[in-house]
Amino acid sequence: MENDDVAGFFVDYAAGGTGSLQVSRVAAGHPNTLKFEVFCERGSASFDFRNPGQVRVHLLGDGDGDLRGTRTVVLGPEHPYWRDSLAMDAPGVAIGQNDGFVFQARAFLEEVAGLPQSRGLPRNADFADGLHNMELLDAVARSALAGGAEVRVP
After folding, report:
1. In whole angstroms, what is the distance from residue 57 CA to residue 43 CA?
2. φ and ψ of 120, to 5 deg
3. pTM of this structure
4. Which of 6, 47, 63, 127 is such that its CA lies 20 to 30 A from the CA of 32?
5. Per residue in 2-57, pLDDT tens?
6. Cα–Cα distances in Å, from 61 out to 29, 43, 57, 96, 150?
7. What does the alpha-carbon distance between residue 119 and residue 121 come to, in Å, rounded to a whole number?
8. Residue 71 contacts by C-beta under 8 Å, 6 or more apart in sequence?
9. Is 36 exposed, middle or buried (0-12, 13-18, 19+ CB in 10 A)?
10. Adjacent-strand bridge partners of 23
11. How far is residue 55's CA from residue 75's CA, in Å, rounded to a whole number?
């Protein structure tokens, strides 16, 4: 099968970290996967949109056996982004993919009304964030056209 719906790139962050991004619309076994993984010196964390009500966390700990190992952190009504917005605000009630659209709409309306800070949440992305995102995408395209050459983003 011929398909160009696969892409990937590496990034060096100004603060010294590195990252990679891989996307595919044709990856077998992943019909609707949106997954983020972060690896750090003292552990890692991952979020998979197929299971939006949980985050996987692995901590190395400092010799304390209780802090070591991988655990699943269940997100629910006590989570600040979801508080007071679930149809059934009860611990252990699953959060599904479609709920994400409700939370997104709520976040937009709260931003318009100036409410995110009143709940202790950060602001949503603004025009400058969107512009920077477009600059990043442009840099990836220019790098690909240049055979993978490094492209700096302001």
Report:
1. 8
2. 75, 20
3. 0.69
4. 127
5. 666 788 888 888 888 889 988 887 888 887 778 889 998 888 999 988 888 889 99
6. 34, 8, 12, 31, 36
7. 6
8. 56, 57, 58
9. exposed
10. 7
11. 7
Q: Which residues pair with 7 in a beta bridge?
A: 23
Nearest to 99 by CA among 6, 107, 66: 107
Q: What end-to-end distance do the CA atoms of the chain give, in Å?
A: 38
What are the start-end ranges of the E strands in the chain? 6-12, 18-24, 35-40, 43-48, 54-59, 69-74
Q: Name the more confident of 84 and 140.
A: 140
Phi, psi of 70 (to 5 degrees): -95, 140
Q: Quick: pLDDT tens for 79-128.
A: 777 776 666 667 666 677 777 787 788 878 888 887 766 667 777 788 89
Amino acid 142: pLDDT: 94
Give, for 142, the enclosing helix (H) or strand (E): helix 127-145
Task: Tell me the two tokens of residue 101.
Answer: 């659209």
Residue corresponding to tokens 């409700």:
102
- Angle at alpha carbon of residue 48, lines to 109 and 137, rounded to 5°: 70
